Amino acid sequence: MEATSLARTPLFERHVALGARMVPFAGYEMPVQYAGVIEEHRAVRTDAGAFDVSHMGEIHVDGPSAHAFLQEMLSNDLDRLDDGQAQYTLLTNERGGIVDDVIAYRLGHGQYLVVANASNKGSVYGWLKEREPRGSEVRDASDEYGLVAVQGPRSLERLGLPERPAFTHEMGELDGVEVMISRTGYTGELGVELCCAEDDAPALWDAVLARGVVPCGLGARDTLRLEVCYPLHGNDITTETDAISAGLGWACALDTGFTGAEKLRRIKEAGPARKLVPFVLDDKGVPRQGMPIEGGGEVTSGTHSPMLDRGIGMGYVPAALAAPDTELTIDVRGKGRRAHVVSKPNYRKEE
Amino acid sequence: MAAAESYPDDLKYHAEHDWARIEGDEATLGITWFAQDSLGELVHFEPPEVGSTVTKDAACGEVESVKAVSDVIAPLSGEVLEVNQKAVDEPELVNEDPYGDGWLVRIRLSDPSEADALMDAAAYKAHVADQ
What we know:
The structure holds two protein chains of two kinds. By secondary structure, chain A is α+β, with helices and mostly antiparallel strands.
């Protein structure tokens, strides 16, 4: 571990003071857990949890040609966004591969914010900067902001925030800290992501925890996202996988002609040879990334689901094995474990 | 609730963070407080089969947390007499009571003199401090 070369978020001292276990992730020293992954996971499913996601990338794209530029770079239809709205979208390459999955925020006319995965922020910025046309300014502002996700059924109540539609954002204030409040997240729960000036991040974090929100690490972030089948770039989607096979066709407006759209249209018409599917283990055990699935598949993400108390995961399988209820056999270190394909999400809240 | 850090004096320890409680020609085996703390909450224990043979310094099962899987290294050699079915059904017992209810395997020793190569609690504590 090259501890000296790792970056720190503005909340590093807070994590250490809370007794978090710190691990290297995407070039940062990040908290993987405080009290324990399962306890934190349950806090988010039943109450509210806070995640430091300041390591993520914030890239501003501004200017009179910003809209047309991003419409060409990103898979979703930017025309559907009004000021104060955001959308899940993919940065695609010419082969239809996924450079990153991002959230695009329309801040104003000709003003966009692209929030990228921490591990990809350099490549997203480089990709956009390299292709930036006249009339667009791409600027990496990742080090200017702190970002705290507050997620869970009681998150808004604890923060004293009103309900708003998902994927909207507004400027606001929390206990004296100016924040951009986005109704977004990575857990499948009600919640917000709060973006503030980097220097304000510790005050924001303290205010959130003072309201009874439980600090949660990257461990719970991963189990939470896998229960609701949100893909993780680098695992489930990569520059070598396409959106159609990954089940992300809903985020691709093929008629906008974005980079790789023609390639994706052909995959869609022919039907993908393999598909990304969620599955649940029927046997004991925990599936992990890279484990073979009998019949020519591979696990791309796997974990133990705290809510289902069994192994869950996602993986690519031949299209013939992709229908819900199809039985799969996963090679868990030499032992065949029975699993079956489920429809998304893996975990559903009981209403 | 996770247990507090401890390394009982009546146990023998292996460098791979396993313990043995030797009683005559039998021994009960488990993983140490340090091992369970490093792994986090256990969600799966894959035991060896009763009647199989385990070999000192070789894997005799797996323990798995949300984030990671780890081999259970046998601190001593012998035949598996019993596995802790409660730990199979409720792996969190290993976190709650690593030296008691969270034991993993009971074996009949094939070579009791192997125990001479294991560490006592003081030596193991020093070993953990180096990790």
